[in-house]
């Protein structure tokens, strides 16, 4: 089958490929965990040309003025060619504006967008905006969530701030910051691994991180534009974390950290559902709707690769909390791979069993 027929089939089935939209990386992390430091270091990097950065901030220390080459109103172009704007209010308006000004040639072309959230925030509303606003979701697609965790205070923050557990759970990459002042990270790393089995954990000192390590966490490799399904789904990581479902029995040892059954991270579950036969896309959608209706509040993140009756190639789906991105039809299955459907779910206060039961009831297999 050629790419054209795959795209044609996808269009017929109402599956909208995500290619052509600007990939968005959302940088989140608790207050003071080092987001701005990471961004300032990134902005200097030559590989950040053709990147637009939106900093959502409330009167805090902004970007480093020494790096700024030209400025038009609220937007500055950095030495690296990176576009940068700081906002205090309306993210939707800013994202629309970026597109408009790009059309009018008022700003340089950009191929990638990074949004820094405020430290207090649950990243979900921003992710929802990206996925649901009609103008924005037509132009941008969520590529990845990057979360900073402070190596010095991360344990205490995870203990006391449920939002910080969520931020770690939904991440595609975790940046462990300040390892210069807190080099013993074994316990915290274990704990983060339990909350989020798949995200690579990268130690970062003073924001020094390779942009390539951050981008490319999404489905499409930004350089090749080809989907990297295995890396994106990382289903093996969830399989290895299989006993995750049972760790409320108290046998888990997080390094030096003593066990407490009420810890927020013990409420997080990650698991994989599989189906070996082709599934009906409409039934899959029915299942998602039923899942949202019954357990929407518990869902944190979902990613899946589906083998559906309506198209030959794989279909990628993902959602954050109860909001789902439009599905993306990919050209073909990876070389040598037997087609099948796999869905990874990260949830809070929700076990695999009821979800799987419902999945079987709707989708079969
Ligand atoms: N020692 C050390 N300090 C760091 C490192 N990264 C950041 N800091 C310091 O930690 C403090 C907070 O860093 P920021 O980058 O402002 O953190 P933030 O997450 O943007 O903070 P908010 O925007 O307030 O949420 C600053 O004083 C930084 O200089 C690091 O790797 N090592």
TrEMBL record:
Residues covered by region (Disordered): 241-261
SUPFAM superfamilies named among the record's database cross-references: Hypothetical protein YjiA, C-terminal domain, P-loop containing nucleoside triphosphate hydrolases
CC terms in the record's Gene Ontology section: cytoplasm
TM segment ranges: none
Domain of life: Bacteria
Reaction(s) this enzyme catalyzes, per UniProt: GTP + H2O = GDP + phosphate + H(+)
Function: Zinc chaperone that directly transfers zinc cofactor to target proteins, thereby activating them. Zinc is transferred from the CXCC motif in the GTPase domain to the zinc binding site in target proteins in a process requiring GTP hydrolysis.
Protein name: GTP-binding protein
Organism (species): Pacificispira spongiicola
């Amino acid at each position: 089958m050629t790419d054209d027929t795959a795209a044609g089939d996808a269009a017929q089935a109402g599956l909208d490929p995500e290619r052509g939209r600007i990939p968005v990386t959302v940088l989140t992390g608790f207050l003071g965990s080092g987001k701005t430091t990471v961004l300032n270091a990134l902005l200097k990097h030559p590989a950040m040309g053709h990147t637009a950065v939106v900093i959502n901030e409330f009167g805090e220390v902004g970007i480093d003025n020494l790096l700024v080459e030209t400025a038009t109103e609220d937007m500055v172009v950095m030495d690296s060619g990176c576009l940068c704007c700081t906002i205090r209010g309306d993210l939707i308006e800013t994202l629309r504006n970026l597109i408009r000004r790009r059309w009018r040639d008022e700003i340089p072309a950009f191929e990638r967008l990074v949004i820094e959230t405020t430290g207090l925030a649950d990243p979900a509303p921003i992710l929802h905006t990206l996925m649901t606003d009609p103008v924005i979701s037509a132009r941008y697609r969520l590529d990845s969530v990057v979360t900073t965790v402070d190596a010095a205070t991360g344990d205490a923050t995870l203990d006391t701030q449920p939002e910080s557990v969520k931020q770690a759970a939904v991440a595609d990459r975790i940046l462990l910051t300040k390892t210069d002042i807190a080099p013993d990270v074994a316990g915290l790393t274990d704990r983060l691994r339990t909350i989020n089995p798949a995200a690579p954990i990268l130690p970062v000192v003073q924001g020094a991180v390779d942009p390539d390590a951050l981008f490319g966490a999404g489905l499409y490799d930004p350089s090749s534009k080809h989907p990297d399904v295995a890396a994106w789904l990382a289903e093996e990581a969830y399989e290895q974390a299989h006993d995750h479902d049972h760790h409320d029995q108290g046998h888990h040892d997080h390094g030096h950290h003593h066990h407490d059954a009420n810890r927020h991270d013990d409420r997080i579950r990650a698991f994989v559902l599989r189906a070996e036969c082709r599934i009906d896309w409409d039934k899959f959608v029915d299942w998602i709707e039923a899942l949202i209706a019954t357990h929407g509040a518990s869902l944190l993140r979902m990613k899946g690769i589906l083998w559906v009756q309506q198209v030959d190639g794989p279909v990628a789906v993902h959602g954050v909390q109860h909001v789902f991105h439009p599905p993306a039809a990919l050209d073909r299955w990876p070389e040598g791979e037997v087609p099948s459907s796999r869905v990874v779910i990260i949830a809070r206060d929700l076990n695999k069993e009821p979800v799987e039961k419902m999945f079987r009831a709707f989708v079969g297999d």
